[in-house]
Specification:
five-stranded antiparallel β-sheet, 4% strand, 579 residues, Growth Hormone, Chain: A, 23 helices, 63% helix
Length: 579
Amino acid sequence: MPQQPGLMTFLSKQQIVAKSGFNRWLIAPAAIAIHMCIGSVYAWSIFNPPLIKQFGVVASSAGDWSFSSVVWIFSTAIVFLGLAAAIGGKWLEEVGPRATGFLAACLWGGGFIIGSIGISSHELWMIYLGYGVVGGCGLGLAYVTPVSTLIRWFPDRRGMATGIAIMGFGGGAMIAAPLKTYLLKHFYQAPEYLGKTADINLVTEGGRRFAEIAGSKVEVVIASVTDMAKLPVPGPEGVYVIGTGDTGVASVFITLGVLYFIVMTIAAFSFRVPAKGWKPEGWVSPAANESAKSLVTDDHVHIDQALKTPQFYRLWIVLCFNVTAGIGVIGVAKTMITDIFGPSLPDIVDASFAATYVLMISVFNMSGRFIWASLSDYIGRKNTYHIFFALGILLYVSIPYIATQASINPAVTWLVMFYAVTMIIFTMYGGGFATIPAYLADIFGTMHVGGIHGRLLTAWSTAGILGPFVITYLRQNSVESAINALVARIDPAAFQEKFGASVSHLQELVDAKTVSISKLMEISPVGTIDPTPTLYNSTMYAMACLLLIAFFANLTLRKVDSKHHVHNSHPELEIDGVK
């Protein structure tokens, strides 16, 4: 009997060469499915609130993780996305899209499973290892595989092809946001409720709050009306026992891990590669676009030679700073809109509204990827990025003004303006990702564009660190300044009565999460303006500065010198079968 092929044979590139007459449009759904699964990373901010309340559930307790510690999980995943794409891009060409797609499914789904174990055991490093490192590697392989495959099947519609695949990545959160919200609500269990604050005998020790019940002390958290409005299942304000409920996030991780593995595996097994020499019937390679004539080349640059050109590093800056400006906001999107408008418009900006906001980010991110990439075919890639940066600067600096006005004069108008401004920003953020592969092909040719694209994605990895670092560092400085300013206006006696400790213990109370801006506002003098909406002002100005640098990097891009072309730098190589 003939030997049955093993798994590696089944996954090999030789086994998936398409037969004559294969419908290339069948590749598109598989590519979109994979990108939509990994695109759920954009809805990470939905996990932030439950992760920082694992013990307290309704409010953060002293033993819970801080916001600044969990937000880096998202950053870690993006860092390893870029690293895996840079390394795996070249490997993809050797083994084919089915093998890399299946490995990506194992890593992305497995990362969720490992992360769920870390959540259940309250081991933060396991979440970083699972979702961040293992899952991030899955992200990188899953990102480059569909793009590389579609470019080969659609040489006549390169921009559209990359737009389709990368649009799926941007649209992943469109499905993930409501799915995660639903699952969190399904698995949520409220902690034990003791009653209203006035009815419970509370004491403060070491910055922590305790309730005296039947002669014993039980550690508790005090949830305000605002805190309860942010929960998947709202409940009464008051005192809750720590460690008696469940945010449900660990169960959500397990569910999503299994689901994503199944979908991505099916999609990976659907991939085919065109036969050598295949091209669309009647297609002839078009001449260079006149509007981008100074950059577009018909020559090719070797992947290793590309790293020796100034164009590669200028494009690296272009992508890095464009992504940094957007990724820092996306990672904390749900928290930011709640911070800015939650205090002034609590009846509108509740948990449901914030989840919908994350969904709309995905919609506009996804739309921008297809629209801007398609538009770049007509106005040129360079001009497209000029728009991203010039318009982006204006939009980013407008956010502090909107936030300040919202705190002074709460009105739905400011919310609408904020919504519109951020959605335009997210279209350009997504458009930058979808346009960069075509930009690279214009400048370096198509011979190694997939591998060059993978290496350029290290800019995404850098942005994954830089963006959240800037936004969390500057936000934390703003929080500390706001707390000190509020305490200076509050009667020390009122502070003592509210928190069970004097002002001299302020830092201890802040570290234990007993004191926060929202709790201080409850005892602030009448007329005190809530500083929460302005916490992101300095961050927005910093992002605008980064876009200005990127603008000049893009402005100075020129055509690659002919000495870097393959026929000069690597004359021994063959291109399309011709030496």
